[in-house]
Amino acid sequence: MAQKLLRPPGAASEKEFLALCIQCGQCMAACPHNSIKPHRSFNKNRHSMEIEPAKTPCYLCMKCPPVCPTSALNEKCTDMRQANMGQAYILEKHCHNFNNGVMCSTCYDRCPLRGHAMVLELGFIPRHTDACVGCGVCEYVCPVNAIVTIASPSFESDISQEENLKRKSERNKNTTPPTGALKTLTT
Ligand code: SF4
Ligand code: SF4
Ligand code: SF4
Q1: Is the Cβ–Cβ distance between 29 and 35 less than 8 Å?
Q2: Beta-strand (E) ranges in the chain?
Q3: What is the reported pTM?
Q4: Pocket probe mutation, ligand 3, options 107, 119, 137, 183, max atoms within 8 Å of Cβ
Q5: Which residue owns the Cα nearest ligand 1 atom 5?
Q6: What is the DSSP letter of 35?
Q7: Ligand (nearest to CA of 36)
Q8: Which of the 8 DSSP states describes residue 42?
Q9: Helix (H) or strand (E) holding 70
Q10: By CB count within 10 A, which of 42, 44, 65, 70 is most buried?
């Protein structure tokens, strides 16, 4: 199955998003960073709105959800902590800090939710937490391509936006995440 595309902040579940988005381009026009682009393909995602962090991430300014006329993006989603786009992962075998003793905190420094979505374990090891919303800024700025951003998995994208926001809001009550919530990939 093809990887789900990373949608703009506040997107409805994938099925609903594809049904609701009329491809009017208003979210694209509202984005000051040119982060939102129509997907180029000949499958069901053709011309649907996506974000490709490796090219241009979302900076979580939250200007796009309020302009969507169809609720494909939830107009009430104006808090960056509820953007709920996906989750970033660190590829340990590529990250400086896990390998060659070079200290790098670029991802941590640039995360819009620094200290919540991204923490420095022991003061120097970057870790994503469940508060990560998948904006992809950390992927974009990593100098050694050690981060990948993955859209909300299908089990999350198939539940309602309301439920998603409720879950995210619950997660964000904890500003210091438990160790079990830390996200890295070791492969
Ligand atoms: S939140 Fe801001 S930066 Fe992100 S896609 Fe929407 S308008 Fe662009
Ligand atoms: S503003 Fe809404 S309906 Fe228009 S292209 Fe963006 S997501 Fe689709
Ligand atoms: S950890 Fe990365 S993807 Fe997650 S919110 Fe921060 S910059 Fe965005």
Answers
A1: no
A2: 36-38, 49-51, 86-91, 118-121, 125-128, 147-151, 184-185
A3: 0.84
A4: 137
A5: 58
A6: -
A7: 1
A8: S
A9: none
A10: 65
- Pairing relationship of beta strands 118-121 and 86-91 according to DSSP bridges: unpaired
Measured from the Cα of 36, ligand 2's closest atom is: 6
Lookup: tokens for 17: 């998003």
Measure 57 CA to ligand 2 centroid, in angstroms: 18
pLDDT by position in tens, the chain (length 187): 566 899 999 999 999 999 999 999 999 999 999 999 999 888 888 889 999 999 999 999 999 999 999 999 999 999 999 999 999 999 999 999 988 778 999 999 999 999 999 999 998 899 999 999 999 999 999 999 999 999 976 444 444 555 555 554 554 443 333 333 455 554 4
